[in-house]
Amino acid sequence: MEYKDLLKSVKSGQWEPVYFLQGEEGFFIDEITDLIQDKLLTADQKAFNEFVLYGKDAAPRQILDLAMQYPMMADYKLVIVKEAQELKKLDELKSYFEKPNPKTVLVFNYKYKTIDGRTAIGKAISNHCTLFTAKKLYDNQLPDWIEKQGAKYNLTISHEAAFMMQSLLGTDLSKVDKEIQKLSTSLADSKTVGINEVKEHIAQSKDFNVFELTSAMAAKDILKVNTIIQYFNSNPKSHNINSIIPTLTSYFSKVWILHDAANESEAKKLQLMGLKSGFFLKEYLTAAKNYPMNKVFQVFAILHEYDLRSKGVDNKSTSPQALLQEMIFKILH
Fold this sequence. Notes:
Layout: H1 3-11, E1 18-23, H2 26-39, H3 43-49, E2 50-54, H4 60-68, E3 77-82, H5 94-98, E4 104-111, H6 120-128, E5 130-134, H7 142-152, E6 156-157, H8 159-169, H9 173-186, E7 192-193, H10 195-201, H11 210-218, H12 222-234, H13 241-260, H14 266-273, H15 281-290, H16 293-310, H17 320-332
Parallel strand pairs: 1-4, 1-5, 2-3, 3-4, 6-7
């Protein structure tokens, strides 16, 4: 089932006996589970009819016993299996999936992987359960998602602010959602989020984040870049080479597109680059001037090399901090 359709059916109270929620994007799985948990039972009914198990500790027999029981003073019993990807012998539930108890809503949170649809248990889930596969958003989809998520908290987030939030926070939707919630609480007088609000409330030190790094690299401001890298290397838990390489790859991909679309109109350039506003185009134009197409090609090779080295390929002793410093130096020179 598609995400929008599943949310709509849950919100309208159209309950299914078994929900199997799988896939790479854990945020969507948790969101659907939380909604079911919120809508299915009242607070009074939950004490006797809601059970939350964890795959690592649960056994199929325990899940089956709970699912087969009928609710007490409620229309349904709710059984949630979190971290279901850790559950052993899932195939022992095949017969239940094929003929579930209609008075139980059984929810599986099967995160970060998918069941093999070619297996007997995979076919049983596909044919008899409500199956949802949560896919990761592409980078160019994230700003739109941020704007829509902001609307859920009565915030109007501008295109530029959404783009900046993506650059600052990355693609962890749970992390982004928490920051949007904080903005909703912090902006008591105004519910409009622009660049200034993001800088004030999210970029705690606006000079030391990935967004400012790409901006300084675009301008080839070597002093500022080195200052930021020194800060990153002193805070490796928050800023490390493995989180920076994907951001730089995405950034220079847009610079490459801009070179390729040099003779196109501004509107066409924005479309090809996946930008909704010309606010950031000036910076990319500066980057394109400072990084000709042949240099951008070299940048991709450098990023690929250091991605491998950061993972131990042809590297036995160089620290991640030293690798980051080397990589940035080669890109700038």
